Amino acid sequence: MSVFIKQILFATLIFVLFAVTLLIPTFLINPFESWSELWEREIFDFPYIYSILIFTILVGLVVGAISGWYWRQKLKWVHEQLEAVTKGEKRERTEYESLKELKELDQKFLLLEKKFADQTKLAQQLATERATEREKSLQEVVVQERNRLARELHDSVSQQLFAASMMMSTVNETNPPAGEAIKKQLHMVEKMIEQSQLEMRALLLHLRPAALKGKTLTEGIEELLAELKQKVSIEIEQKLEPLDLDKGVEDQLFRILQESVSNTLRHAKANRMQVMLIERDGHIILRVADDGVGFDVEETKNNGSYGLENMKERAESIGGSIKVVSVLTEGSRLEVKIPKIGNEVDPDD
Questions:
Q1: Which residues, 6 or more positions from 338, have their beta carbon under 8 angstroms from its beta carbon?
Q2: What is the CB neighbour count within 10 angstroms for residue 306?
């Protein structure tokens, strides 16, 4: 039962009891010769007893409705403040000078907000420390083996796919078969080879991922996208703002971008991809969108997608969140939102 209904029922009950409490002593002090007079005497063409009850109930309903609306607004404010704190968003503070309890609650929200900000800052610091340690203690054997596999795939399978693609393109353009069925099959083979090339490039990106190596996040993304533009046929649009971020935050966002780009190359069959890195309202926003075939997000989550889970863990490790939206045949969009920790929240403000 909502607080609005509770207030109406409570006020109505109180007024009815109040009316009964006043009427009983009145009847005892000025007794009627007969109780039938309560029904015989009328006010505005209504029996006296009915008039009293109707008036009492109406007053109770009105007072209860006003009280219910008032407290529902206050609870709505509490809900909005709590939701803003849990999402890491900036709260719109309101002074309640006449309500000491809500002023105290507002101070508690400030303390909770400061605690969340401190925890997020600590998580980002830990991520920075882990990234620095990871760079210092990089497993050289693993890196060398991955590079060796990447070189062999590039020098053998990738080159063969490129040669096959060129041969099929030449056949289809210079010496096309007469039969429509065979021509259609050859075009399908050419498309399959092109898709295999995209998947091979995505696999090479996984095996030998680029590192920032002293560059800022914006510089690293620009270099990665410039390399992709030379190797893939997808149109890439970018909007990148220069940002001053901790090393750990930059490292995790860059890895998320690599994972997302790899998924787009392997599965999306997209013609256009958009990459955006901006800062808005105290948050760092990384967004990757494409116009590909799309997929069922819930089904992919239920099937335990390693890529999505890995990106989610990376975002949460620096106090952020990730949102994936996809529509079949219309494309997909991934958005990572990380709070940028600057000045701490002062509960005495």
A1: 249, 253, 283, 284, 285, 286, 315, 318, 319, 320
A2: 9
Residue by residue, DSSP assigns 160-184 as: HHHHHHHHHHHHHHHS--SSHHHHH
Query: What is the C-alpha separation between 16 and 140, in angstroms, rounded?
Result: 83
| CB atoms near residue 280 (< 10 Å) | 10
> What is the helix (H) or strand (E) element at residue 285, kind and residue range?
strand 283-290
270 neighbors 262 (Cβ within 8 angstroms): no
Count CB neighbours of 195 within 10 A.
13
Q: What is the pLDDT of residues 256-286, one digit of tens each?
A: 998 898 888 888 889 999 999 999 988 999 9
Task: Classify the C-alpha dihedral 40-45-47-49 as positive or negative.
Answer: negative
CA-based nearest residue to 237, from 221, 217, 255, 219: 221
Q: Among the residues of 30-47, which ranges form H helices?
A: 37-40
Contacts of 65 (CB under 8 A, 6+ apart): 4, 7, 8
Strands (DSSP E) along the chain, which ranges? 42-43, 46-47, 235-240, 272-280, 283-290, 321-327, 331-339
Strand partners, 321: 337
- Predicted confidence (pLDDT) per residue in 4-47, tens digit: 677 667 777 776 777 666 666 666 665 656 556 555 666 666 66
Q: Which of 25, 12, 23 is nearest to 48 (CA)?
A: 23
**Amino acid letter, 116:** F
Is 0.90 surpassed by the pTM of this model?
A: no
C-alpha span between 166 and 183 (Å, rounded)? 16
The two three-digit tokens of residue 268, written as one number? 């999306």
Counting every residue, how long is the chain?
349
Distance, in Å, from the CA atom of 11 to the CA atom of 318, rounded to the nearest integer, reads: 50
